[in-house]
Amino acid sequence: MHVFLTGASGYIGSSVLRALIAHEHEVTALVRTDQKAQAVRDAGGRAIVGDVTDTEVVRRLAHEADAVVHTASARGIDPDFIATVLGALAGTPKPFVHTGGIFTFGNSTDISEQSPVSPPVMTAWRAPNEARVRASDARTTIIAPGIVYGRGAGIPAMFVGDGEHEVRLVGDGSQRWTTVHIDDLGELYVLALHRGEQDGYVVAATGDNPTVREIAEAGAHGSPVVAESVDASRRRLGDEYADALLLHQEASGAHARAAFGWNPTRPSLVEDLADGSYVR
């Protein structure tokens, strides 16, 4: 399968690129710089230097490919990109996998694909874009990743200590985050492409839902772990980002396992922070 991939140099996109190549798919990635293009080539893909806001380029690459995966999802990109891709794929069996996010569901102790949505301000922009994807007649799947971790990066890296300076929680740290390892997530994108659903939606979560305090204590490596008030977190991180990280979210990822055959095998976030890729 020849896949047109966006965001191939990013955290999620680079994992999807690795997974696609490992499964012997041909990948054409649209990237913004020669340096990023070389990284794609080094991984085994084909790179085109350009911009995802260039609708003519996006339309051509979508027509040329057998499938499209969009991991460069952003407020200023998605409306035109989605419209262009859906137009190019209309009337074809080509699958389109779009990236959503777990924050969409707000506070919930049992997030599933049927859960009501209640996004924080930071990600409220996703709703109309996802509605357009789901209402199309193309073969679309939206993947909503939990808090992504692994390879020493992602949001959890904010809790990696040096044994000296304090590690600050977000609020009191009692909220739970639902999580997914970056490499397990890449595998799920490949499965979604193979499945090629009509209006598919899948929550990407391994079922591991540690508290923020548990996460911070695993990553502190001897640094003091310090709670703070909600107001203090909002001042430090900004209102919108703090409000998203203060959400209490738990999910099992049962649909991804049952319907897609997904089998996440990587270490948990707490394990990875304690003695894995985050150890400096």
UniProtKB/TrEMBL annotation:
Family annotation (InterPro entries): NAD(P)-bd_dom (IPR016040), NAD(P)-bd_dom_sf (IPR036291), NAD(P)-dependent_oxidoreduct (IPR051783)
Ranges for domain NAD(P)-binding: 7-149
Pfam families: NAD_binding_10 (PF13460)
SUPFAM superfamilies, A to Z: NAD(P)-binding Rossmann-fold domains
Name this protein carries in UniProt: NAD(P)H-binding protein
Organism in which the protein naturally occurs: Curtobacterium pusillum
